[in-house]
Amino acid sequence: MKKDYDIVIIGAGVIGLSIAFMLSKSKKNILVIEKNESFGREISSRNSEVIHSGIYYPENSLKHSLCTRGRNLLYDFCKEHNIWFNKCGKLIIAQKSELNVLEDLYNQSITNEIDNTFEIDKSKIQKMCPHISAYAGIYLGCTGIFSSHDFMSKLYHISSSNDHDYLFKASVVGADIIPSGYELTLKNSDDDFETVTCETVINCAGLNSDIIGALPMTKDSKIPQISFLKGCYFKLSSKWRNEFDSLIYPVPDKKNQTLGIHLTIDKDRNARLGPNAKYLDYEDYSVDDSLKNEFYNAARVYLPNLKESDLYPDYSGIRPKIKSRDKKFNDFYISDEKNKGLSRWFNLIGIESPGLTSSLAIGEKVVEML
Q1: Coil vs helix vs strand at 221
Q2: Among 92-96, 258-262, 304-308, whose mean pLDDT is lowest?
Q3: 155-158-160 Cα angle (round to 5)
Q4: What gap in Å lies between CA 218 and CA 341, rounded to an integer?
Q5: Global pTM?
Q6: pLDDT by residue (tens digit) across 56-99?
Q7: pLDDT: is 256 or 22 the higher one?
Q8: Are β-strands 278-280 and 226-236 bridged in parallel, bridged antiparallel, or unpaired?
Q9: Contact at 8 Å (CB) between 16 and 24?
Q10: Which of 369, 367, 370, 368 is nearest to 18 (CA)?
Q11: CA-to-CA distance for 150 and 82, rounded, in angstroms?
């Protein structure tokens, strides 16, 4: 029986768009399904827009290898398609009690073969960024920032131009195995149900990826579950504009497996702090002004001239953290589920940071798996 599509991609965030882009020359009949009214409305557009180095992740983990590969692909893509980026570099700083953590990070950078990375002392930090107070630091010259929206817009345009279909305001609510493929049940914006058949499903549904991934599974099949980890951002007043040339990061927050409340800049060189970390049971993107004191106390450790009145609520994002009991490192889950009896069903779960940096490499990897 002929299917409606060769491939259905669930989720039009940066991962779904990157996979579609990598398949744009394949001549496959492709449908991308997205629950929101347009692409990239959740994780992909609610972050720091940083192009990461890959320093934080264990050697040969997916987060390390795909971040490193993705970084190079991303810079090349931005150059080719005239997308704004700034290879501004990043400074990871440590206070006196954190020097051992910094040294471990530097050793990790050597292990991970992160290029243009070197240690700097207190005096060099002062010369590079007079506002920053720290005992020592690591400078990563390969880190940058870019316009993630323009990036996603270009991916979408290329994909659409290659006759990929996009269905927005539609949610996948069921998945049944049929001969040589799948029948997906969709709920559209009018609350009506419809079905679509395909040979291959690629689930990259972000915050709903574990729910979608479980739809065709048997009771004995296990896939990772995710928790919602919310991060808020506060922007700094205009007096801090043009005061920073590089990104400023404290040492990582190991408790929450995050990078801590850091300082980033945007295209106009405005400064922003965030994100913090708070687990949620539901999606909530509000930014409470009462968090200002938390951000102020975290940032003034390395930015002593900061005043609490300099901070203003900005926006928030939610990271899909894979649940684990021991709070240890969790890698991306990118899996062909044929061993669970699901031929040509691919799950991508827990694609948090450095997912944006890794996106093109993830797309490349999924195409190789296909």
Answers
A1: coil
A2: 258-262
A3: 105
A4: 9
A5: 0.96
A6: 999 999 999 999 999 999 999 999 999 999 999 999 999 999 99
A7: 22
A8: antiparallel
A9: no
A10: 367
A11: 9
Q: Which amino acid is at 271?
A: A
Distance CA 215, CA 349 (A): 14
Let me know how long the chain is.
370
Q: Is the model's pLDDT at 221 over the cut of 80?
A: no
Measured CA to CA, the distance from residue 213 to residue 204 in angstroms comes to 9
Question: Residue ranges of the alpha helices (H) in the chain?
Answer: 14-22, 62-80, 99-111, 122-128, 148-161, 209-214, 292-299, 355-369
Q: Coil, strand, or helix at residue 45?
A: helix
Other C-beta atoms closer than 10 Å to the C-beta of 189 total 11
Give the CA distances from residue 40 to residues 44, 204, 205, in Å, rounded to whole numbers and listed in that order: 5, 12, 11
CA of residue 43 relative to chain centroid, distance = 7
For residues 20 and 358, give the distance between their C-alpha atoms in angstroms, rounded to a whole number.
Answer: 15
- Residue 219 — very low, low, confident or very high, per pLDDT cuts 50/70/90? low
| Segment 309-360, tens digit of pLDDT | 999 999 999 999 999 867 688 999 999 999 999 999 999 999 999 999 999 9
- pLDDT tens column, 283-305: 999 999 999 999 999 999 999 99
Instruction: Give CA 247 to chain center in angstroms.
Output: 17
Determine which helix (DSSP H) or strand (DSSP E) holds 325, and give its type and residue range. none
Do 302 and 274 touch, CB atoms closer than 8 A? no
Query: What are all long-range contacts of 189-193, with beta carbons under 8 Å and residues at least 24 apart?
Result: none
